[in-house]
Amino acid sequence: MRSPHAKIDDWLMGQEEASTKAAEAPFDSFGPISDIRRALGRPDRTSVTGGPHDYTRILAAESDPYHRRVLRVLLASSRISVIEVEDGQSAIDLLALRSFDLVLLGMELPNMTGPEVIRWVRRSLTPWSDIPILGLVGEEHRDQVGRLMSMGMTDWTAKPLSRHHLADKIVHLMPTLYDAGL
Questions:
Q1: With contact defined as beta carbons under 8 Å apart, do 95 and 132 qualify?
Q2: Are strands 102-106 and 155-158 parallel, antiparallel or unpaired?
Q3: What does the pLDDT look like over 149-173, one tens digit per residue?
Q4: I need a surface site. Which of 29, 61, 68, 119 has the fewest CB within 10 A?
């Protein structure tokens, strides 16, 4: 009869030993449960490393596939996690589901336009209602920048997107990304 405190290796090899080591540790499982047990036995390292998220989470809401691809290339960094959506309603839905540090918002979005998203975010009674919003403003909306800023857009950059200009705006809003290699 196998002891409930025996190691799996001892049991598989047919060796029954009641050592003090085996009595201290319960049956050694394998797979996800053993990983969980090992993780629970380790000291908490989140206070040392700075938390579970050592990267900046950016939500990019842009309807134009070309500009989404440009954003993906410009924001390629190990310190940045970008999630892309194509319409305003999806941006609102994701903000409600996940935590983000910055929103890059195009103005010509289907379902909810950029100005409608800004208005909805700023009027919502949620913890993320003060999230920085960087507007991606095309030529047709440049005359409305003042109105968009008064609605709650934090800052803006012109389309077509420039790597240097976008990096300056993002670092201005998120100073921790100064050395992220943008």
A1: no
A2: unpaired
A3: 999 999 999 999 988 899 899 989 9
A4: 29
